[in-house]
Amino acid sequence: MQNQKVKNLAIERQLESKYKNGNGISSIQQNYLHNLFGGELNYAVNRCLLDIAFPDNKIYIEYDGGGHDLLVKLGKLSQREFKTKEIKRQYYYKSKGWKLIRIISCNDLLPNDEMLLNIISIGYEFFETTNHTWIYFDIDNKLIKNAEGIKEFNFGELRKIENILGEYNINEI
After folding, report:
1. How many whole angstroms separate alpha carbon 31 and alpha carbon 41?
2. Span 4-172: which CATH code?
């Protein structure tokens, strides 16, 4: 593994194997969103797994929940290092033609299914009508953020999604 090319290839193959075998790590919320939206869960692109990808459209959905910055919380990365990695990752995918819909909820709360489908439609429409490549739906702060600015948005009633014995349990908040 001294050769960087060989090391990178090994990492890419390992991620691709995780994707093909369906054993990439994902949260309850990511699984719930995947079941609702469809797409490819933990889709491997080079050295990273995309939470939910729509390869034909080159659009991917990232869910940033309570465990998103776990390495920071565990003291393995500084907030600055983590943010830098996130920015580099996003720019890498942008350079490959991918567009990002990011759903942020550090409290792991999600709106109802109709609203979730609506925000994905908003994201697709934003990409179709602009040349921009990212849009964030910040549920905790009731905001939509994109390259054109920030605006308040009412996501409606929020709920906590849990998985008990393979079944989703939805608790209104």
Report:
1. 8
2. 3.40.960
